[in-house]
Design a protein that fits this description.
heterodimer, A: 924 residues, alpha+beta, Ubiquitin-like (UB roll), Aldehyde Oxidoreductase, domain 4, 4 domains, 5-stranded mixed sheet, globular, B: 308 residues, Uridine Diphospho-n-acetylenolpyruvylglucosamine Reductase, domain 2, Uridine Diphospho-n-acetylenolpyruvylglucosamine Reductase, domain 3, Enolase-like, domain 1, 3 domains, 5-stranded antiparallel sheet, 3-stranded parallel sheet
Chain lengths: 924, 308
């Protein structure tokens, strides 16, 4: 250990540090300045940025001793004693904060820029923030926020706010409201799971198999057990309850035991808890495990062959998913043009910037509580309890903030392992994944092969659609059956097609498991069908927009599963409004290739695509959420539900709904999420469902509370309950005003709890194949993208995207804008940069340096058009938005590439190398 | 299980050499550490006894004129190089290369010496220095020697410095005269690994009649170690500028370099294809530099700005 003397946030600090300690370790662990977050620990993501002598550096890979005598500024140091730094305020006001995990790094990097350049142009902002990644894709808002802060700092004038598109507004709903958690995220006060510590806390780590398919022959943990500082080493024998976990099918071993089968490289073999992470890591390295390798299957098409190696005893078919409508012979007979093509999409990675972390500790009453950022807290509780062999109420899940999820935090990660280690040691245990482990373990987006065959008449009217899908679900079921069902039911697009046949084979392989990822299978099938539709338009010689318009679903028509749509089908309006903006921005012939002045090899063109996506679980699953709403003694409202805020803005929406219903100011409502002891189950945060389902639960609970309050006041004042109004933070009986604290006091005095709970059940759905409606609502979207292709190098740049989205009703316009921007950027990554590479079951993309995702440099100009076709059962007409915004982006881009250079993209991501050789007419 | 046992911060070259001599082969020089630390932590390199951090040695951080040449200390960061007025004037291709490496956070700590000492055949800084005709200054117990930059490289990722009690002090290259200029360009792949697929640096001296009097051309990766493409250089000399990218020269260049397929990065076919593209594109950039154009440091930022 060596003495390190440095200045941190203006204070001189002396600490003893080890030779391997990084600056981030000193800041977070020794000084408890947890505003500095660690996203990758490999100098890739920029999250850990701090300023050293005013310049941004990556604290995760800066040896602490390099900071000797230097002046370090963290986000805590940038924050004034009172209020916010202009950059912090601008990030809050402009909606540049979603999950907030990258925010301290973004703000510090921007602060260094503004210290040098008082009036930065967009290019300078992009240059400065180039390697500070935001997976929520807030880049346009970040750019706006930095410019607004610069203007305010330069002129001394008040900060200029944003003006997101408003469609309709009432008291609170439909107005621009800042996120309640944004200031805490901007100042670094916000705490994610790894920011918590408890006295005596141990560090847990997991030994991974590292082989894709094998029998575990031998496991010797004796050396690890005797290592000083090791408190426990656990193997499969130490799992007292259920040996497997799984959201749908319990097929995923908590730990693989001797004689049992390893099915993927990330399978857990042993657990260690030790007094430090370094000791835990060392203990892992001296565990001796021997494997007998088995033949590997790593491709879903190969997995279906009869001679394929078997991943599970039951075979490799996780699910065959058929969709049948009409009569295919008739459909082909009516067709004047038939077109067939096959598309491939890769496995992709969520790359939420906060790696998984579970912190479990024993409680005084002999239970275990787990602090974790999870998308499904009650499923965590139930699965953990089952594996520990205890009743569910012996486990308490306490949701922390979540640094991005996108579907990747639905399956259980370290929760069970942390609880097992607590059970073994009686001490708190933190199981934090590093980026490498995160990449290996959590389920990915399904790689797919999708064949599309379309029949159409000369005028473009679709007569038949046949699709065949293979989905690579990897080693375990996760949500594979559900994901591929959604891929399949959406695989003929949001079109009126009288005759449909779809067959999907969701297959087990020895690849890492695949599960939920924003878009939930529809991202893949939309790319296939929208590419095929563009090919069809060319074959028929019709305008790509016109072909979609003619076939678009509308009220009174039926989907591929025969579901007749009775309301809320805004697809035509989405198409029309994008079309109008497209012709304004791109001229009369947007799909015709254009030259670019000054760059003779470059070609530009637009592409177009549409999409739909279900809201809610569907297919007959019970879809419900509970919520409680309570008026406290100060007259403030607390909303409680176990639903996850993963950055999408659920807290804001629930706050707005309660404020709207109870007539109280927005900021008098606080929302408590995801505590299985204190908040009713809101169900999984998936399927774009929480605004609809949890939103409705809060809406109805608020109304129940309002009626109870009105009844109390009516009795007290001897007037009819409907004479009582709630507005401006008070109850009104004629002109008489009672503030909400008085209302609460009166209810208590009358023996009534000022609290209401409500369990909302979404409209029932029917199982696929039963003939009934499989979903209670669908969102729709149309997008146009302009690209520039360098025809010599194959480089593709997306210049602008026009996105129209039918969200039913935009409750939270700033949130809608964030979802549109983030969705488009994620779709852009899906098209151009992202590929989680696995070779024969082994993960190549096991570091963030091997998984490229969009940065601010890739960000196009994005124009959002909000379309509101309300759904009757939705809260104020709202339906889901989280996924639909991302789905049509990829085919809009790849169709644009075709129009720009004549090369049809059939495999994602667009390979620059292959594209250049195709354009040059060379063999690729 | 440690990756290094000691982290040392000498303040003079002699002190650093003494530390390295204490356990030859078991100590490593570290500057910015942006590559080395990850190599050690991710076990691509064996653990070492000590890391000898040279960024506290003032001489190694220097940038300035030295006997009519330009000197850049091995521990000068990319950020300082990009912003240094002397280098903007005398080393346009190096400024362009350094501006493209990493993001600002990495450029604030990563050093030119580290880029070179890593020994990778496509290191952007190395390729630019080759075109500038740079020499390397190496300090050893017995004194200092100035050697051609190329002579440091002995294989992929291998230099004559490794495993020896030797320290890279810095680089020297001639000042830019009025008829000289240089440029750097590269192609990245948006997927997979974040390493340049192909980069190119060209330095030209023109005579009064618009004929190329002298050329230095470097392409990375053109083989197991960084080097200049001398065959193409020779063909360029004596030619008017507008034929510097002719088919004949491209053919000579393509025959000179050995471009390979690297899995998840680039195919050999693509590399040969873009070799021609880069050669065609770099000549006008280098000529613009001769004419006094400032280095272009926003090359990869995108053109989407300003739309809307």
């Amino acid at each position: 250990m060596e003495n390190l003397s440095l200045w941190v946030n203006g204070l001189k600090v002396e600490v003893m540090v080890g030779p391997e300690e990084m600056l981030a370790d000193v800041l977070r662990d020794r000084l408890r300045l947890t505003g500095t977050k660690i996203g990758c620990n490999e100098a890739e993501c920029g999250t850990c940025t701090v300023l050293m002598d005013g310049e941004p550096v990556l604290s995760c890979t800066l040896p602490a001793l390099k900071a000797a005598g230097r002046r370090v500024t963290t986000i805590e140091g940038l924050t004034p004693a009172n209020g916010l730094h202009p950059l912090q305020e601008a990030f809050v006001v402009h909606g540049a904060i979603q999950c907030g995990f990258c925010t301290p790094g973004q703000i510090l990097t921007a602060a260094a820029l503004l210290a040098r350049v008082t009036d930065p142009d967009p290019a300078q902002i992009r240059h400065a923030l180039k390697d500070t990644l935001c997976r929520c894709g807030c880049y346009p808002s970040i750019e706006n926020a930095v410019r607004a802060a610069a203007a305010s700092m330069r002129t001394g004038e008040a900060l200029q706010g944003p003006s997101p598109e408003h469609a309709s507004a009432t008291h609170v709903v439909g107005r621009t409201m800042p996120r309640p958690d944004a200031a805490a995220k901007a100042t670094g006060r916000a705490r994610f799971a790894d920011d918590y510590t408890f006295p005596g806390m141990l560090h847990g780590r997991t030994l991974r198999a590292g082989v894709p398919h094998a029998i575990l022959k031998k496991l010797d943990v004796s050396r690890a057990r005797s290592l000083p500082g090791v408190a426990a080493v656990l193997t499969a024998e130490d799992v007292p309850g259920e040996r497997n976990h799984g959201l749908v099918v319990r097929d995923w071993p908590v730990l693989v035991g001797v004689g049992e089968k390893v099915r993927t490289v990330g399978d857990a073999v042993a657990l260690v808890a030790a007094t430090s992470r370094a000791i835990a890591s060392q203990a892992l390295s001296i565990i001796e495990a021997e494997f007998e390798p088995l033949p590997i299957v790593s491709d879903p098409v190969a997995a279906r062959r009869s001679d394929s190696p078997r991943v599970h005893e039951t075979g490799n078919l996780l699910k065959h998913i058929p969709v049948r409508k009409g009569n295919m012979d008739e459909g082909w007979r009516q067709a004047e043009v038939i077109l067939e093509d096959t598309f491939h999409t890769p496995m992709t990675e969520h790359a939420f910037l906060e790696p998984e972390c579970s912190l479990a500790r024993p409680t005084d009453d002999g239970r275990i509580e787990i602090y974790v950022g999870s998308q499904i807290p009650y499923a965590d509780r139930d699965q953990t309890a089952a594996c520990l062999g205890v009743a569910p109420d012996r486990i308490r899940i306490i949701g922390t903030l979540i640094g991005g999820g996108f579907g990747g935090k639905e399956d259980i990660a370290g929760q069970i392992h942390a609880a097992l280690l607590v059970r073994a040691t009686g001490l708190p245990v933190k199981v934090l994944y590093d980026r490498h482990e995160s990449l290996l373990v959590h389920p990915k987006r399904h790689a797919t092969q999708i064949r599309v065959k379309l029949g159409a008449q000369r005028d473009g009217t679709l007569t038949a659609a046949e699709t065949e899908l293979y989905g690579d679900s990897g080693a375990y079921a996760s949500l594979g059956d559900k994901v591929m069902t959604r891929a399949t039911t959406h695989s003929s697009g949001p079109y009126i097609v009288p005759h449909v046949r779809a067959d999907c084979y969701a297959m087990y392989t020895n690849n890492p498991p695949a599960g939920a990822f924003r878009g939930f299978g529809v991202t893949q099938s939309c790319f296939a069908i929208e590419s095929a539709m563009d090919e069809l338009a060319e074959r028929l010689g019709v305008d790509p927009v016109e072909l979609r318009r003619g076939n678009a679903l509308r009220v009174g028509t039926s989907t591929s599963t025969g579901q007749v749509l009775h309301e809320s089908v805004g697809l035509l309006e989405c198409i029309d409004r994008v079309d109008a903006r497209l012709r304004e921005r791109g001229g009369a012939q947007p799909f015709t290739m254009r030259m670019v002045e000054g760059r003779p090899a470059s070609r530009r063109a637009w592409g177009f695509a549409v999409a739909f996506k279900n809201t809610g679980l569907g297919s007959g699953a019970e879809d419900k959420a509970g919520a409680e709403v309570e008026l406290d003694d100060q007259g403030c409202v607390e909303v409680r539900t176990a639903s996850a805020e993963i950055g999408q803005g659920l807290v804001t929406v629930l706050q707005m709904i309660a404020a709207e219903e109870l007539g109280v100011p927005f900021r008098d409502v606080r929302v408590l999420l995801s505590d299985t002891d204190r908040t009713p189950d809101g169900g999984p945060t998936t399927a774009s469902r929480q605004t609809f389902v949890a939103g409705n639960a809060v809406l109805h609970a608020s109304r129940v509370l309002r009626r109870a309050a009105a009844a109390t006041l009516a009795e007290h004042n001897d007037c009819p309950p409907d004479a009582i109004r709630f507005a401006d933070g008070a109850a009104w009986i004629g002109d008489q005003r009672l503030d909400m604290a008085q209302v609460a006091a009166l209810m208590h005095a009358e023996g009534r709890e000022p609290r209401a709970s409500y369990e909302y059940h979404a409209p029932a759905t029917a199982a696929l194949g039963s003939g009934g409606d499989i979903h209670f609502a669908y969102s729709f979207a149309a997008q146009a993208a302009e690209v520039e292709v360098d025809t010599e190098t194959g480089e593709v740049r997306v210049l602008q995207v026009i996105a129209a989205t039918d969200v039913g009703r935009a409750l939270n316009p700033l949130g809608v804008q964030g979802q549109v921007e983030g969705g488009v950027i994620m779709g852009l990554g899906n098209a151009l940069t992202e590929e989680f590479i696995v070779e024969d079951g082994r993960v190549f993309s096991d570091r963030l340096a091997r998984y490229r995702m969009p940065s601010i440099v890739h960000t196009p100009y994005i124009e959002s058009v909000v379309v509101e076709h309300p759904v009757a059962a939705g809260p104020y007409g709202a339906k889901g938005i989280g996924e639909i915004t991302s789905i049509p982006t990829t085919p809009a881009i790849t169709n644009a590439i075709y129009h720009a250079c004549g090369v049809r993209i059939r495999r994602l991501p667009v390979d620059q190398d292959w594209l250049a050789l195709q354009i040059a007419g060379l063999p690729a | 299980m440690t990756f290094w046992d000691r982290y040392l911060r000498p303040t003079t070259v002699d002190e650093a050499l003494q530390e390295l001599a204490r356990a030859p082969g078991e100590s490593r020089v570290i500057a910015g550490g942006t590559d080395l630390l990850l190599d050690l932590q991710q076990r691509r390199q064996a653990p070492v006894r000590a890391l000898v951090d040279i960024t506290g040695i003032a001489e190694l951080c220097d940038i300035g004129e030295q006997d009519g040449s330009i000197f850049i200390g091995a521990a000068a960061t990319h950020s300082r190089i990009v912003e240094h007025s002397l280098l903007i004037r005398h080393a346009p291709c190096l400024v362009e290369a350094c501006s493209l490496i990493g993001g600002p956070q990495v450029r604030n700590v990563a050093t030119l010496g580290g880029n070179v000492a890593h020994g990778l055949p496509a290191a952007d800084g190395t390729i630019a220095l080759l075109a500038l005709g740079a020499q390397a200054i190496v300090a050893e117990a017995g004194g200092r020697r100035t050697v051609p930059l190329e002579s440091l490289f002995v294989g992929p990722g291998q230099t004559t410095l490794r495993g020896r009690t030797a320290l890279l002090v810095g680089f020297l290259f001639p000042q830019r005269d009025a008829q000289e200029g240089s440029a750097f360009q590269r192609i990245m792949r948006p997927q997979g690994v974040a390493i340049a697929i192909l980069n190119i640096a060209l330095w030209l001296r023109m005579d009064a009649a618009g004929i190329i009097a002298q050329a230095r051309l470097a392409v990375g990766p053109c083989g197991p170690m960084p080097r200049r493409a001398t065959a193409a250089e020779a063909l360029m000399c004596g030619q008017p500028a507008n034929v510097a990218n002719s088919e004949r020269i491209l053919k000579a260049l393509a025959e000179d370099v050995q471009l390979r397929t690297s899995v998840h990065r680039a195919s050999a076919e693509y590399r040969y294809h873009v070799l021609g593209v880069l050669l065609r594109r770099i000549v006008p950039s280098a000529l613009a530099s001769v004419a006094g154009a400032l280095p272009a440091i926003d090359q990869e930022l995108g053109e989407s700005r300003g739309i809307g």
